[in-house]
């Protein structure tokens, strides 16, 4: 059972050590995110909802018992959710944050996920969790990127309302940049780098970029 519920992160680890031939996605996630603000205008964390593709969802559910066939409650999925969020730390939660304007940006770190749970709907698993910053971030500009450096996992932002600001000051503005196909960029990469197996940050070309400006 434990082997099954760790399959997602075990597969991701294999991708990190794989050569260039494996530099393409095997798991697909549709993501929605929220940037959470405190009353004083500081940013306290990021709330994610990641919906896995049907094939992976079916595989991950193998061996998990449910009272009703084809229906899984939060309690029944709790062990799977716990193992997933505990394993996320090893991969930096696939979420990268920088505070400050251009030329003065500072990397921000997260605490362990909280308020996490899994839900199963329309043949797909969705992992909900909140990433609190280690300390509230007081900044007029925040840049976020969501991606898997190995590109074993393909993150796509939800088409409708992919990112929202929760409790943000009225002056804050949000911009979202989705990754392009990336094939043209990949062709420009040095072939020798691929041959050497150095594709550890290949997925950065496919990063979803989120920028928040609060003048």
Automatic annotation (TrEMBL):
Source taxonomy: Bacteria, Pseudomonadati, Pseudomonadota, Alphaproteobacteria, Hyphomicrobiales
Keywords linked to the UniProt accession: Signal
Signal peptide interval: 1-23
Designated name of the protein: ABC transporter substrate-binding protein
Pfam short name (any one): DUF1007
Top-level taxon of origin: Bacteria
Organism this protein belongs to: Afipia broomeae ATCC 49717
């Amino acid at each position: 059972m434990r082997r099954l519920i760790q399959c997602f992160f075990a597969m991701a680890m294999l991708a990190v050590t794989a050569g260039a031939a494996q530099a393409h996605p095997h798991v697909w996630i549709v993501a929605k995110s929220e940037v959470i603000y405190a009353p004083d205008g500081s940013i306290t964390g990021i709330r994610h909802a990641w919906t896995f593709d049907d094939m992976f969802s079916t595989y991950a559910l193998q061996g998990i018992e449910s009272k009703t066939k084809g229906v899984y409650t939060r309690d029944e999925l709790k062990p799977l959710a716990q193992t997933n969020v505990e394993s996320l730390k090893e991969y930096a939660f696939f979420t990268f944050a920088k505070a400050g304007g251009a030329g003065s940006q500072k990397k921000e770190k997260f605490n362990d996920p909280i308020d996490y749970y899994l839900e199963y709907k329309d043949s797909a698993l969705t992992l909900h969790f909140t990433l609190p910053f280690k300390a509230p971030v007081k900044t007029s500009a925040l840049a976020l990127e969501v991606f898997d450096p190995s590109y074993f996992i393909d993150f796509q932002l939800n088409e409708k309302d992919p990112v929202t600001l929760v409790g943000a000051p009225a002056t804050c503005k949000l911009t979202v940049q989705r990754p392009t196909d990336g094939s043209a960029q990949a062709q420009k990469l040095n072939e020798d780098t691929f041959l050497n197996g150095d594709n550890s940050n290949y997925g950065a070309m496919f990063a979803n970029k989120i920028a928040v400006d609060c003048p």
